[in-house]
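Table S2 (text version). Query chain:
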Amino acid sequence: MLYVRPDYYEKFKCIADRCEATCCAGWQIVIDEGAMECYKSQQGEYGEVLRERIDWSEGVFKQDCRKRCAFLKDNNLCEMYERLGEVSLCFTCANYPRHIEEFENLREVTLTISCPEVARILLEQKEPVKFTEEEIDTDEEEFEDFDLFFFSYLEDARKIMIAILQKRSLSVAVRVSLVQKMAEEMQTIIEGSDLFDLADVFDTYEEEANLAKAVSEAEQELEAFYENKLEIFFYSKTAFERLYKLEFLSEDWEAYLDKCRETLYGEDVQGYHEMQKKFGEYCARTPIDGIDMDILLEQLLVYFVFAYFCGAVYDDNVIGKIRMAVDSVTVLYEMFMAKWVEQDGRLSAEDIQRIVYRYSRELEHSDVNLGIMQR
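Corresponding structure-token output:
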């Protein structure tokens, strides 16, 4: 089995009780069948504790009135781990914040930014992300009707897209525009069932001469777009409004969205334009606690594209995967700006980190929400 991981993967180490937002609270933790059988067979006094604190019909750990796992102590350490050791952890607890995508003979493992420590690591990543490959002997899952031919095209496309997103000689807006156009052209071909034509799309965005022409066209289109303040306003507002279509996983998330929306779009178009201009100047003038905003946006885009794009092998929805990545980074930038306004022109690395992991928890911990953002 080939394992592929981002180069910052080994930097992660759980900080346990020092984490500002424990992963053992706020959502139900689903227990895998193997762990359930292990817990059922546990003998003695602690076996009775396990049977009392597990919802056996739902296959989850019970929670207290604060939505904290029944095994989470007040000091934010796991009682089960302390009593029975690491082998007692269910699959979810043992693997989080690792995000795994399964393909035939391939397992792609990323670190989800819903974890505050992972969000911090990504914020501090200055160099373009690279991906490491390692062959590991492991049981391979059988995939029926897996379209390896289509998947190879998706891998090639993703490689080109990531190369474009990491091309720092171009503005982030141009990079995004190119990747979106590439995805749109791919989607048209995929829906026409003539996959061999994808090679022509790849030539447009990979060959230097062709790419230079595509860049020039993207720059001209963006220049016209930026001249229309009303269009910019409604583009940003529409992307933000999509978040209200998602199911809310945190009790305070809707209130947070309301506050951001009022800050961002509560005034007229001119007011929004002035705010956006000043925030852009603020980000360009000086790194925020060492964070270069363009690099951060790049890292976030690459994160979403790498983690989800090749999943189109299962649903053919190439454009949906890119739409989710672009819309997510768009609304994150808007949330950064709202925080900056609310704090009278101040924004810290901690502010950005908190916004990133809170957004990810709402999006990436819900298959329903992931589906909505890919429509």
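Notes on Table S2: The mean pLDDT is 94. Residues 104 and 316 are 17 Å apart (CA to CA).
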